[in-house]
Amino acid sequence: MNNMKNTANTLAPLGHLIDGVMVADDNRPQDIYNPATGAVVRQVAMASKATVEDAISAAEKAYPAWRQTPPAKRAKIMFRFLALLETNKDRVISALTMEHGKVSDDAAGEYARGLEVVEYACGAPELLKGEHSKNVGPGIDSWSEFQSMGVCAGITPFNFPAMVPMWMFPMAIIAGNTFVLKPSEKDPSAPMIIAELLHEAGLPAGVFNVVNGDKEAVDTLLTDPRVEAISFVGSTHIAEYVYATGTAHGKRVQALGGAKNHAIIMPDADIENAANMLMGAAFGSCGERCMAISVVTCVGDEAADALVGLLKDKLQHLKVGPGNENNDMGPLISREHHAKVKGYVDLGVEEGADLKVDGRDLQVDGHDDGYFLGPCLFDNVKSNMTIYKDEIFGPVLCVMRVSNAEEAMGLINDHEYGNGTCIFTRDGEAARYFADNIKVGMVGINVPLPVPVAYHSFGGWKRSLFGDLSAYGPDAVRFYTRRKTITQRWPEGGVREQAQYSFPSNA
Ligand code: NAD
Question: Is this structure's pTM higher than 0.85?
Answer without folding.
Answer: yes
